[in-house]
Amino acid sequence: MNIHGRKSKLNNSFFILGKKLFKSKTGLVGLIIVVSVCLLALLAPLIAPYDPSKINLEAMLIPPVWLDGGTSQHILGTDNLGRDILSRLIYGSQISILVGVSSVVIAGVIGVTFGLIAGYYGGFVDNVIMSFVDAFLSVPTILFCLVFLSVLDPGILTLIFVIGVTKWVMYTRLVRSETLSIREREYVKAAKSIGVRDFNIITKHIFPNVFSSVIVISTLSVATTIITESSLSFLGLGIQPPAISWGIMLSEGRAYLATSWWLSAFPGIAITITVLGIIFLGEWLRDLLDPRSNQRKS
């Protein structure tokens, strides 16, 4: 009975979430975009019509199919080396999703850990951690990334690590502020009074109450991370060829903007649509999980 009861509650929860999602047009659009991009990344070898790195000098700078000189063999045209733009866009989604999600996981683990420690213990520990946070906030994230990447060897793993360790401060500030409030609640004080260890209080009583906020900020942070990766790759300090990313495609196409605009236009559109989809989904999650937002609406 207990198992069936739990399954019933879980099914009801998913039904309610789905119902609320379909009521939100922006949330539904965001979910469709995010799921579509993820499927493109996962199924790229099956979906892409060509090898994205295959050079064909006889098919250089072919325009999209709807323009004069376009061909149905290359729907979005080809680049300066005859590589299919559509195939490169599909494979480029893999890098964007990988870097975006991995960097956010690293930043979340670091930021949430420091935020919980600073908010729970307060005092000297809080002052030291928040001093580091203030120091990081005083310098733009992109500048930190540029400094680190100019010293370290560029690559996917390096880029993920650098972005992750420069974006943890937003998690720390959010989690610390919520932890300061939660630690004063009765159930936390009761746990302290009966000798429950600090680690258990933090992990079992405080962290579950800040988890929803972490999910929301993580979703929105993926969007900014994708933009950061594209910017760094555009500048030549991010993903390096022969790896394919939307930022690299933008960088390679800037020399042909006057004559072959599609080289940069389509990766730019892909970045814009993906980021908007993630933002729409993140806004829906914020409205769903933030009780204060629900109170304002009611």
CATH architecture: Orthogonal Bundle
Please give the alpha-carbon distance between the first and last residues.
36 Å
Give the overall silhouette: elongated
- Structural class, judged by helices and strands? mainly alpha
Largest sheet report: none
> Superfamily at the CATH H level?
MetI-like
Number of helices, counting only DSSP H or I runs of 4 residues or more:
13
Order of helices and strands: HHHHHHHHHHHHH
Helix content: over 70%
Question: What this model shows, in words?
Answer:
The structure is a single chain. This protein is 74% helix and 0% strand. The chain is mostly helical.
Task: Provide tags for this entry.
298 residues, mainly alpha, MetI-like fold, disordered C terminus
Structure described in brief:
With 298 residues, the chain is mainly α. The chain has helices at residues 2-23, 25-42, 44-47, 85-121, 123-137, 141-151, 156-166, 169-182, 186-193, 198-234, 246-253, 262-289, 291-297. Helices cover 74% and strands 0% of the residues.
Q: What topology does this entry show?
A:
Elements: H1 2-23, H2 25-42, H3 44-47, H4 85-121, H5 123-137, H6 141-151, H7 156-166, H8 169-182, H9 186-193, H10 198-234, H11 246-253, H12 262-289, H13 291-297
Helix pairs in contact: 2-4, 2-12, 4-5, 4-7, 4-8, 4-10, 6-7, 8-10, 9-10, 10-11, 10-12, 11-12
